[in-house]
Amino acid sequence: MAAALKAKIDGKTKPLGALGRLENLALQIGLIQHTLAPCIVQPHILVAAGDHGAAKAGVSAYPQEVTWQMVENFLAGGAAINVLARQVNAQLLIADAGVAHDFGPRAGLIDAKIGAGGTANYLAGPAMSLAQCMDAMQRGAAIVRDLAATGCNTLGFGEMGIGNTASASLLTHCLTGLPLAEVIGRGTGLDDAGLTHKRALLAQAIAIWPQRPALGSLAERSNHEDGEADPGVAALHILARFGGFEITLLSGAMLAAAKAGMVLVIDGFIVTSALLVAAKIAPEILDYCVFSHCSNEAGHRLQLAWLNGEPLLDLGMRLGEGTGAALALPLLNAACAFLNEMASFDSAGVSRA
Ligand SMILES: Cc1cc2ncn([C@H]3O[C@H](COP(=O)(O)O)[C@@H](O)[C@H]3O)c2cc1C
Ligand SMILES: O=C(O)c1cccnc1
User: Fold this and answer.
1) 125: nearest Cα among 254, 297, 241
2) Ligand 1 center to residue 184 CA distance, Å?
3) How many other C-beta atoms lie within 10 A of the C-beta of residue 347?
4) Three-state SS for 279?
5) pLDDT band, very low/low/confident/very high, at 215 (cuts 50, 70, 90)
6) Which residue has the CA at smallest separation from atom 22 of ligand 1?
7) Is ligand 1 within 6 A of the CB of residue 161?
8) Which of 162, 269, 300 is the best mutation target for the ligand 2 pocket, counting ligand atoms within 8 Å of the beta carbon and taking the most?
9) pLDDT tens profile 300-321
10) Is 324 in the pocket of ligand 2 (CB under 6 A)?
11) Atom number, ligand 2, closest to the C-alpha of residue 318
12) What Pfam families does the annotation carry (predicted)?
């Protein structure tokens, strides 16, 4: 398939390789969809929301209630992701994975609430139980299975949860071994004093969990022998310790999306932390991932480098919600369109080199 796709790409009326990374994208989407004529069908963006027990300790510049207030904003159509999704004709799915607010039954809001008031504070113990962790992953997977049954073949991921850059930093450090201080950033806009405080709190969160499972490279996950500690299981323990319900739901959704053969459009720092968990469980998920952009949150560039992921865009954004994923969708459409619609040297009668 790869050779056939490459031949089709190289046969188009352009100098070899002249469409640059669009060519790699066309190849990747063709491989995911097992076809020489790939296309993006009914693209969706799944935005999961959840609250974090640690938010009250001061890891964010904003108060916790912004999480539910922004969910209301999503439902009313006024957030950045609503605007950008409309621009690119993507449908939004908003899931309450565990926001500390009672929305009641609401049109347009998927009730995937785990617990009532968000996660527990990881500065005191695990953020969630393993049972809650599995539950949140299953709920994400169920949303994606329903979506795949409707014919959607492309899914972007987004999140909302005050304090979730801190959670993502802890997950990233534990899952990759990247130095904790280097993967902690300003999130919504902490000042220098706030950043120092966040660093101290997160160092403490790591220090009070001395028995955390060690994790090696993705290759070690693929090669691990029966009877050895499974890095996928270790990743679940790390996720339960430091994760948010929204991040956990997204990890489960990503695994199901790859299983369904979808193109996964990865957003910023927090969404990439959910992918790190999923990749420890099933490293082959990375073949299905398009990295939409590089966020300005310190640590995203390092995550991408660790995953060998090349972001399509670098716009200095640091918002989340799936906004980077939305902006990358036109590039996916363009990649499919040139492969499907451009003339070839033979069909157009243009001389080759
Ligand atoms: C009004 C507002 C809208 C947002 N939309 C996404 N985020 C982003 O900021 C949060 C993470 O940053 P931290 O870890 O510093 O709290 C997440 O909710 C993320 O999606 C927002 C944040 C705010 C304040
Ligand atoms: O990279 C992101 O997704 C991000 C960065 C800062 C705040 N919220 C999200």
Assistant:
1) 241
2) 15
3) 11
4) helix
5) low
6) 188
7) yes
8) 269
9) 999 999 999 999 999 999 999 9
10) no
11) 5
12) DBI_PRT
pLDDT higher than threshold 60 for residue 218: no
> Model ipTM?
0.99
CA 228 to ligand 1 center in whole angstroms: 39
Whether 225 sits among the annotated catalytic residues: the reply is no
**Which of 318, 323, 327 maximizes ligand 2 atoms within 8 Å of its Cβ, making it the mutation to test the pocket?**
318
Under a CB-based contact definition with an 8 Å cutoff, are residues 206 and 99 in contact?
no
Which one of 23, 159, 246, 321 is the catalytic residue? 321
Structure tokens at 48: 């999961």
% of residues, the chain, pLDDT over 70: 96
User: What contacts 120, CB < 8 A, 6 or more positions away?
Assistant: 53, 126, 127, 128
The whole-number pLDDT of residue 211 equals 72
The reported pLDDT for the residue numbered 228 is 61
Q: How far, in whole angstroms, is CA 313 from its chain's centroid?
A: 15
Distance, CA of 14 to chain centre: 34
Report the topology of domain 40-348. Rossmann fold (3.40.50)
CA distance 132 to 115: 8
| Ligand closest to the CA atom of residue 57 | 1
In the predicted model, is pLDDT for residue 222 greater than 70? no
The ligand 1 atom nearest the CA atom of 162: 16
This model's pTM is above 0.95: yes
Distance of CA 197 from the midpoint of ligand 1 (Å): 18
Longest dimension (CA), the chain: 70
State the pLDDT at residue 224: 60
* One-character DSSP codes across 185-209: --TTT--HHHHHHHHHHHHHHHHT-
